[in-house]
Write a structure and sequence with these properties.
The chain has helices at 13-28, 30-34, 36-42, 59-65; strands at residues 43-50, 56-58, 79-89, 92-101, 104-115, 120-130. The chain is an alpha+beta fold. The chain has a single domain, classed as Nuclear Transport Factor 2, Chain: A, CATH 3.10.450. A hairpin with a 4-residue loop joins strand 5 and strand 6.
């Protein structure tokens, strides 16, 4: 008989935070942003974003427009700094960081939750707030 799978605990909080950060960095990769299949695997079915513009996006809207958004074209990578993560509960990580793309700086916050059945991290919520100069 198989032992029941036990969700991760706080003992491996650092590992969960590292995994969520790695997933966030994948989502910033232009190649991932251009691929609906790759982006879809990283966005939770209940995904919501409040963008730096103030616009609210759901998963369907984001997947439709992500390939044409800034940061999706070419190999242009965004500069990422001050990445911090906190394990809020097993399988739920809050990330904060700053991005800089062509001088436009944005504070970012995202919630990642782990689908234990699929063993994958998916972005549940994201918000970007421009930094005033």
């Amino acid at each position: 008989m198989n032992e029941p799978q036990i969700p991760p605990t706080a003992r491996n909080a650092d590992e969960q935070i590292r995994e969520a950060i790695a997933a966030e960095m994948q989502l910033l990769d232009p190649a991932v942003r251009r691929s609906r299949e790759l982006a879809e695997a990283l966005l939770d079915p209940e995904f919501v974003e409040v963008g730096a513009s103030g616009r609210r996006w759901d998963r369907h809207q984001m997947l439709a427009e992500l390939p044409t958004m800034s940061g999706s074209a070419g190999n242009q990578r965004v500069e990422v700094s001050d990445v911090r993560g906190v394990l809020l509960a097993p399988g739920l990580v809050h990330l904060t960081y700053q991005t800089n793309r062509d001088g436009r700086q944005v504070l970012r916050s995202s919630l990642w939750r782990k689908d234990f059945a699929a063993t994958s991290w998916r972005m549940y919520y994201h918000q970007g707030t421009p930094i005033k100069e």
